[in-house]
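Reviewer 2 asked us to include a model.

Predict the structure of this chain.
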Amino acid sequence: MKRVAAIAGLGLLLLSRLVVSASAHPHVWVTMHAEVQYGADGRMFAIRHTWAFDDMFSTYALQGIAHARKGQYTREELKPLAKVNVTSLKEFDFFTYAKADGRKAVFADPVDYWLDYNDSILTLHFTLPLKTPVAAKTMLIEVYDPTIFVDFELAKDKPVTLSGAPPQCRLSVGLPHQPTAAEQLRLSQLDANPLDPSDTYGEMFANKIQVQCP
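Predicted model (structure tokens):
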């Protein structure tokens, strides 16, 4: 139920309709861009997310949101919904997990966040700063939902970029594991037997962002 509440925090005001109508996990699809940000001292200090939601989710999320022009929403009109998004997802670490040289790196509360709406797509922008900036030889960032309720897909055009990183640093991206027939079957059964957020099964479907700085 907590996972349902978190997704509702993304603005899915009629989540129950999706749960009833969908036949298998996932139920929400996100196309993502990420910018890994470094400071002048060579330490990573934040990751900037841009998450574009599928059109069905976007439609439900916008129900009840007051707006002056039909089919259009300003950033100001979407401001309360953006706040609900980032507040509700905090409990679930924003589906973003980082390790610096194998040790967990902890993110602080998001900053500089907003929503926009274009071509029937709702997009959430937010920055996750690290509580303590780190200079690591290997920085690994994974984006995924442990319960596989939300599917994250890297955008085809410049899915991940580095900003301000030392010139010797190199970026690599790992796509999620493609499920086998047996895994597809298990995914089809997750509505009846949902995963717990502490379960590690969903980790195999993570998008992996790695920065190597020799």
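The first strand starts at residue 28 and ends at 38. The helical segments are 2-9, 15-21, 55-61, 79-89, 181-188. We have added this to the supplementary material.
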